[in-house]
UniProtKB/TrEMBL annotation:
Residues 235-383 form the Acyl-CoA dehydrogenase/oxidase C-terminal domain. Belongs to the acyl-CoA dehydrogenase family. The keyword Ribosomal protein does not apply. Residues 10-124 form the Acyl-CoA dehydrogenase/oxidase N-terminal domain. This is Acyl-CoA dehydrogenase. It comes from the Bacteria. GO terms for molecular function: acyl-CoA dehydrogenase activity; flavin adenine dinucleotide binding. It holds the Pfam family Acyl-CoA_dh_N.
Amino acid sequence: MYSVIRTIFNEEHEMFRQSLKDFIAKEITPYNAEWERNKMVSRESWKKLGENGFLCIQAPEQYGGLNIQDFRYNAIFVEELGLSGCSGPAIGYPLHNDIVFPYILHYGTEAAKAKYIPGMISGDLISAVAMTEPGAGSDLQAIRSTAVDKGDHYLINGSKTFITNGYLADVVVVAAKTDPSQGAKGISLFIVDKDMEGFSKGVPFEKVGLHAQDTCELFFEDVKVPKENLLGKVGEGFKYLMTELAQERLIVGLAAVALAESAFLSTLDYVQQRKAFGKSISEFQNTRFKLAEMGAKLEQGRMYADQLVMLHNDKKVDSAIASSAKYLLTELQCWVSDECVQLHGGYGYMWEYPVARAFADARVQRIYAGTNEIMKELIVRKLLS
């Protein structure tokens, strides 16, 4: 039996976990195959998450939130979605909670908060963040989308690609150049909603994995954005992105551990049932050694992840720490999923088996939220500073 001794959660956390487990078993797992075929989760699932208090739990009570300032609850949310093996929901829902919502909470005007946060809590408004462009991935300073000040509003033009939650999104945090001559200091952030004239979406991409996660291009043609939808100050957008990206990368790392554990647990069951040469393949030394390697490294990864959660609760996770987490834990996920496929043999390459989906879903973890090569660069900058 695979288990890790954990000390960071109390009784209230475990009650929340059980409630979430029950919700996932009833409202997510039974529908995941359908969502994969549709290339997106259902809007109804978002509303049910909201009804059960699982969205934007840090939101102040004045907006209808629970005002829970304990990141362990966020970690449980990501973890249980990952352990369910439903990779698409394990990425899309936390992006709304832990990546997009903080931008609006921390930098939004009071008018913007009052307009958008209640709907984000209820699940009536689905959110996305739009940074990546066709010619600018990890190099955010190279974005070409522009926002021109027109007095009482901004006019946004440009396009974004690979946008998670993009197709369903009602609210999008958009990075655009307000002063193209200033490089990073010329980037600002804006809230764009789906009803703004000139804002359109492409069809969901045909991806290798994460089939239940809607990902698409976004297009902005003279989109008129009111001044109150500017996040923070003009020209401060890049700084805000760098501040909030630490939590984004930590979330990706936490999801990676849980998704890897899900694939591993599925494989533990499989090798005990599968027969070869007259006995269970779990009796072969190679299988046993592979299981031991994965179990030990997953235990190490889980303990590391728990420590990171507590560090983040104390606001001690900086860019380098988050980069290390994202790099190490996504590499672990990809390695584990590959080993699990190998232990399944030919069946591991069949889409009906959970490990096949886990393998396909894992690969992009080393690419988005900053490639792992960029993570190494951020890590070494601190080492040499």
